[in-house]
User: What shape does this take?
Amino acid sequence: MADEPSSNHHPAPTLPDRRRILTYIGAVSCAMAATASTIRRAEAGWPDRIVKLVVPFAAGGPPDFVARVLADPLAAEIGGTVVVDNRPGAGGSTGVTGVARAEPDGYTLLIATSAYIVNKALNDQLSYDPVKDFTPICEIANAPNIFVVNANLGVNSLQEFIAFARSQAKGVNYSSPGLGTTPQLSSELLRVRAKISMEHIPYNSGPQAAQAVLTNLVQLSCSAIPLVQPHIEAGTLKPLAVTSATRWRALPDVPTMAESGFDDFVLDTMVMLAGPARLPPAVTARLSDATQAILARPAIRDALQRGGFDVAAKPPAELGARISKEVPMWRDIVAGDGPQAGIDRNGASRQNDKSDERHSPCSMNPRKTTMVFALRLSNPASCLGRSPGSPPSMPKA
Assistant: This one.
């Protein structure tokens, strides 16, 4: 009796099968060759056309300021033309996604803020991954934020504002440059820790958010310092507190959050330079070296410091390590994971703070770590505010 065929035996591929396999191999080989060709061209002749610094916010905000400080010196360093390309929308996600999908040839770069990292935690449906879809180039600078009110509101300290907010039957409103930005997160943290009712009114840029408090559309704004410092000096805005660990050198009379009664309340905004994933190593190194050299110049450092920034000048490896660390940190904070969260999965806080229940599904445990958010990710806008720039329903002042 003949032996039974082995169960591991596979018939030889038929001619159509072989053709499909060869076609697949050919397609993969062509794709790999095209990628290698792109890298070689970028490394050999870069830059031979305009390099775009994409700013995912409207002109006039902190990242736009940094981009414009760097653009001309960077052009001189690399021997090319560098322009600033503002692409606002969706709390910065529109411009960020555009860079993620760009050709990795060194001609489309990203000037990003901390929102680039935080937005992924706020909305897991975003089409970009902060780690996988980008090449870190340089951590440029960091800046604290500041809480301000209209000078005519009649409050002179953060504690006075909290008392004012509690006196309003319908609560108060605050403005920010958009969902997931550090000014918005700082304001949410204040809302919960101070146990006050505040509605978020997001705008598409920092200048628009500052204008909202100047024109009394909102009672409070958390802003990058350079946007509001001229108005503070002019007496039209009243500074309440800065979110840095120490007082800001240009505003020495403004207290910190700790001095205002809120320990462990330190939040800054990082500004960084990145490119699409698979950016050629030679181009990455050249951009990083050029940017760090520019940031070492006293005139550039002075300009950034006058603009409210502390220069960082960190190379790709250090920037990449920071991003890789902060992505899971913010994901855990937002989702309520991790030992520091103190938040249930369904978006409810474990605290017994009845005064803030009307803000469900967003809640936070003020007794825990500085940045503890429970945001319902299926509809983050329902937690964090209305659509950008939509008119608020104002409480009576």
In short: The chain has twelve helices and ten strands. The beta strands are 51-55, 82-86, 108-113, 134-150, 172-176, 198-202, 220-224, 237-242, 268-276, 310-314. The longest strand covers residues 134-150. Residues 46-142+269-330 form a domain with the D-Maltodextrin-Binding Protein; domain 2 fold (CATH 3.40.190.150).
